[in-house]
User: Fold this.
Amino acid sequence: MSDRKKRRLIMRVSILAVLIAAVVYTLYSTLAGDERYLVKAGDHAPDFALTDLNGETHRLSDYEGQGVFLNFWGTWCKPCEKEMPYMENQYDVFKDQGVQTIAVNVGESDYQVRNFAEQYNLSFPVVIDTQKDVQNAYTIGPLPTTLLINPEGEIVKVITGEMSEEDIVSYMDMIKP
Amino acid sequence: MKEIKCECGHVNPEGTELCNACGRALTTAADNKKTSDVMRYEGTARRSQTYNASVVDKVWNFFSSVKVGVWLIVITLIVSSLGTILPQVLFIPPLIPPEQYYEEHYGWFGKVYYVLGFHDLYNSWWYMLLIAAIGISIIIASLDRVVPLYKALKNQRVNRHESFMKRQRLYTEQKVEDPDAAMAAIKKQLKEKRYNVKEIDRHLLAEKGRFARWGPYVNHTGLIIFLIGAMLRFVPGMYVDETLWIREGDTVAIPGTDQEYFLESEKFVVEFYDADEDPEVFNAAIDRVGSIVKNFQTDAMLYKREEEGIAGDQRELELVQQKAIQVNEPLKFDHFAIYQVNYKLDEFRSMSFNMTNKETEENVGSLTVDLFEPQNVYELNEGFRAELMGYYADFTGFENGEPQSQSPVPNNPAFLFKLFSPEKPEGEVAFIAIQENLEPLGENEYKLNFAGIETRNVSGLTVRKDLTLWILGLGGAIFMIGVVQGAYWNHRRLWVKVTDDGRLLAAGHTNKNWFGIKKDVAHAFKGTGLKEITDQQEIEDNNIKAREAGEENSLDTTSKH
Assistant:
């Protein structure tokens, strides 16, 4: 192959490669849509600080070294209501094994959240995200959404929808230190 | 690679039609071509035509073809128009699933439309591929043409062969007394017309407006920049388009700002034109439609979270800006703009009740429930109080005796109260909803009467950030520069040659506007005694016309017989 021809081939291959890369990236972005902006497994869990019903502030980074079972919920949401007792049971089992449970209400009134927590005798911290910025940070869509955060502060799994008690057991087991 | 050696000794690459040096026709095909066709791309070898060996070359040559490019554009145009037959999925009512909507509203056609993906045409992968193919075609076809064209025009020789000149559309060959003097006059007069003139050994090349030839390629560069800008929208951080609903009095995080900015709505108002107060221009319209909106406005405050602040912390907000957001008057900050786009009037905020004795109708006190911050206990007159046992913001009915709420929005608030009075120190239970008063645990002595309601408005805002706008603008500007460059300037060239036997040959070529170049030639020939230059194509056209006219005439004569 002559030098000129070789040079031309290299030129063509590189131009085509750049173009194809651009097309593939654009197609991928379009087809993935907004999903690629969602917080997902493997991401570092965004830090947050919210106050619970007893006036105590919970900051995620304070729980480094422990697994965090982070549940987003609302009082009107039926599946949330259903899984709460399971979470309460397993919180009791796993809290001594280094798995913390935090339930983030998506910004309802203190009254409703408090009533709900009393009704189900919730002993884990229940916090209210009034300004909705924690929901934004975690790109929360439908409720309930639960995130499993390992002791290193990395998200292990994002669960959208209702969980059974067995699910909760296995999930909490996943993030034990 | 096969090469073509011209009679003049110059070696040309394969695919060349006219010798790059002297301009002789190299192939019989080129020799037979009409004058105007052979001058396209200066008769150089387009790179795509040279070889066709590997897959890479085949792909390259496919996209290099103008024919392919035109087909891609035609197909894209047709497909794009198909997307306008039925509304796109973005514009159908949001609550109905699209597969159902299209079939219900448009029958089998709607179903086919949906199944084929035309409901979201402009985001479909194959539509994107079409656009991408056009982009690739533009880049490769341009590259394949502009490089050889540039080289050919840069290296063009002054002395061209007679056969090259003869083949030009404008051509003349005359005997004059003193051809060298005529040539000198032509040179001078072309310079007056701002031609760039080169003379070598009784040959003359005059050229003007070569830069017009780059017009299409400048134009294509603009298009490519535009496409790149459109593509950059997909890069995170470059483009944000989010919706934000905010109630009066609330402070919420602005989506898309990474929890850095917060917005507080102080107030939302809709104002109408007043037939008495405002200028009378709208009076006729007000009579006709009832009312005309003058203003939609959200009085907003923008807060920024301090550096290093974390989500959820409410103490670290700092007021940055205060602004009335109106239609077309967005709140702008840090590349973001917040636009007024929607609203919801009169959402329930609080409800007031009076507690009265059912029999005596004596009022024993009143209470107001803030629907967004209800309390456990409402103290009334001495000895009377109401305890809120349950609050259901969007009440839908009972399930197993339990009141149900379907959302956190107070569309249909309902309350379960326990009313305490000296007569009933253990309390009596009352369930209150709009137009509904129940006493689920037996007859009560006291009741709560609805006394009033307070509402507030909700603003619908759009949060937008677009860092690609300037790229789109730049692409568009370059596109237009290319159009102007190619449309308003012409590339004109004249070759003049004095032969050894004393003849003077002149040939002219332009990429457009033959009338203009003929005028230039006429000016150049002034005072030289040379006759006007011949337009060979015009003569040919006239001949064809004459022939056709002749045939018609003969037909006419036959019909008369």
